[in-house]
Amino acid sequence: MAEQIAQTARAASKVLQAVSGADRDAALIAIHDALKHQKDAILAANQKDLDAAKPQVEAGTMSGAMLKRLDLTRSWDSMLQGILDVMNLEDPVGKVSLSTKLDEGLELHRLACPVGVLLVIFEARPEVIANITALALKSGNACILKGGKESSHSFAEIARVVSGALARTDNIPRGAVQLVQTRDEISALLKQDRDIDMVIPRGSNALVRNIKENTKIPVLGHADGLCSVYIHEDADVDMACRVVVDAKTHYPAACNAAETLVVNEKILTTTFTKVANALLDAKVSLRCDAASLAALNEVPALLAEYASQITASTPEDYDTEFLELIIAVKTVPSLPAAIHHINTHNSGHTDSILTSSAPTAQQFMSAIDAAGVYWNASTRFADGFRYGFGAEVGISTNKVHARGPVGLEGLMIYKYQVRGMGHVAGDFDVGGKSVRLFNMVASQTSEHTFSAPWQTVTLAWFLRYPNPFSTHVLSCDTLSSTLNSNGTLYTERLIRKRAGLLPAWTPATIRNRVKASWVLEECMVDRDQKLMWTRSRNIDHTRFCHVVQSQEWGASARGTEGTVCRTNAKFVSNFANRWGGVSEKIEEFISKGFAKNIKKSREGLNYVLDAMKEGRMAIGNAKLAAA
């Protein structure tokens, strides 16, 4: 039976690779609509699983964390939205990541392709069925899903709905998604290494370890969370309280919840006691080492109110994934000591540092061995939804293939295509022709110095629309703007731009559709370092051509007044999967147009700078003047 399931999936995977992106998206819509329509029946089945699990929790045979993961009501909306988010992602199949001209008429291309057949085994978390199915179909992979006994009613009902939706969908091969409900099949499926390409376990440490020990098939996943947050001596107190409490309490049963709080000894009687108070207020129990326990003993009010939540730690606590409102506290004398402790005890999942120093953060982020390393952010961001992946198949701590939250890209590998005109390797032997490498993806770099000081140029950059040189800009809206406690400003803006004329050889269907484009513009301003980083990219028509522009704005060399802007731009077209040289022509055409546009953008910024200098610009009633 297991062999037949695997072989059916293998046959389906070969067909699925050739199914169009539109047909795969149609299947996702069908699944989404069917699940939405059958919500009441699915949640009723889920309630049966919850009712059966509660006595097990009370008896101590099931953890409270697993019970929380089993509850589908809390994840229902995000499950449905995740399917739509995945559908709206760019089709990864056939995406070109490298194009090199080896010789005249001889080209090398690297294209993304599906892994093949995925076996997903999970405990609780019934929403995994929808998440994995969406990601597998979008990426062109066949998948076999096996749920745990604790979610058997939920699994059976969702399986019925998903299978029915796919049966009504054209062009998706039979066996592309198989939902296995027989417990005996797991061990047999783990032996099908000829037809199954990857196993993805979602569940307890015991489940993951058991799978890794009993299969030759590559396993993508992690056995433990064990995330840490380190508070450096210069961390902002209010920010530390917010981030640590969120990292521990936002969803304690999640693998990205913080399990260890590492504290610099210089702040034991200041920042730490306030963070500890915030955690205790949130009903978190602290397992403290001797130094942190002594610091709390100096605060009688804390002991009087929270004595039952404060205990001494054991060595085992620093290797324990609590998955509940418990956190271990470790005191360290320095940053290197914090790095050493975390690297010794972490699982390679996600670790965070809280500090106001960029060099300190960089040292930490470079030295910590983990899939995710954060600066002034909660470990709870280690999630495919929050990374913008639409959904995730899981979080991997592996060092081969995918790492961290695994979305579509983690389900892709690549193949190399070589296109020649009768080329033979013998012509390139010693003494013969040499391979000439030429990167076929167009790019540009440039540098320009504005005469105005950095603080004036950065302000003018935010105010540059509209100006006489930007008549192609139709709208500019701020999506977000955040100023952190260190004075660093982060902004996102959405800009609508009118497209320029396309060459006559562009297909009419493309010319008629590409009339305007949405551009996402991201910016970070560090006023202390006098640096601004900007990045803009089009978020539609990316198959035709994806243009990514990165810029760094810094003060001129010491002793001179001015601002240096360094620009790097890349132009990548995946039109027709780069067949027949059309993509190269598109990149060349767009690159030439960009060179003209970058000149216009500089003229526009200079126009704004002159207007500021002459007092012709204002924000509200306040006139602006160049410094």
From TrEMBL:
Q: Does the keyword Translocase apply?
A: no
Q: In which pathway does it act?
A: Amino-acid biosynthesis; L-proline biosynthesis; L-glutamate 5-semialdehyde from L-glutamate: step 2/2
Q: What is its EC number?
A: 1.2.1.41
List the Gene3D superfamilies hit by this protein, alphabetically.
Aldehyde Dehydrogenase, Chain A, domain 1 (3.40.605.10), Aldehyde Dehydrogenase, Chain A, domain 2 (3.40.309.10)
Recorded catalytic activity of this chain's protein: L-glutamate 5-semialdehyde + phosphate + NADP(+) = L-glutamyl 5-phosphate + NADPH + H(+)
Alphabetically, which GO biological process terms does the record hold? L-proline biosynthetic process
Q: Which UniProt keywords apply?
A: Amino-acid biosynthesis, NADP, Oxidoreductase, Proline biosynthesis
GO MF annotations for this entry?
A: glutamate-5-semialdehyde dehydrogenase activity
Highest taxon above the source species: Eukaryota
Tell me the Pfam families matching this sequence. Answer: Aldedh, PRELI
The top EC class, named as a word, is: oxidoreductase
InterPro entries with a match to the protein in the record:
Ald_DH/histidinol_DH, Ald_DH_C, Ald_DH_N, Aldehyde_DH_dom, G-glutamylP_reductase_CS, GPR_dom, PRELI/MSF1_dom
- Taking every annotated instance into account, which residue ranges of this chain make up the domain PRELI/MSF1? 441-617
What family does the database annotate? Answer: Belongs to the gamma-glutamyl phosphate reductase family.
> In UniProt terms, what function does this protein have?
Catalyzes the NADPH dependent reduction of L-gamma-glutamyl 5-phosphate into L-glutamate 5-semialdehyde and phosphate. The product spontaneously undergoes cyclization to form 1-pyrroline-5-carboxylate.
Would you tell me the protein name for this molecule?
Answer: glutamate-5-semialdehyde dehydrogenase
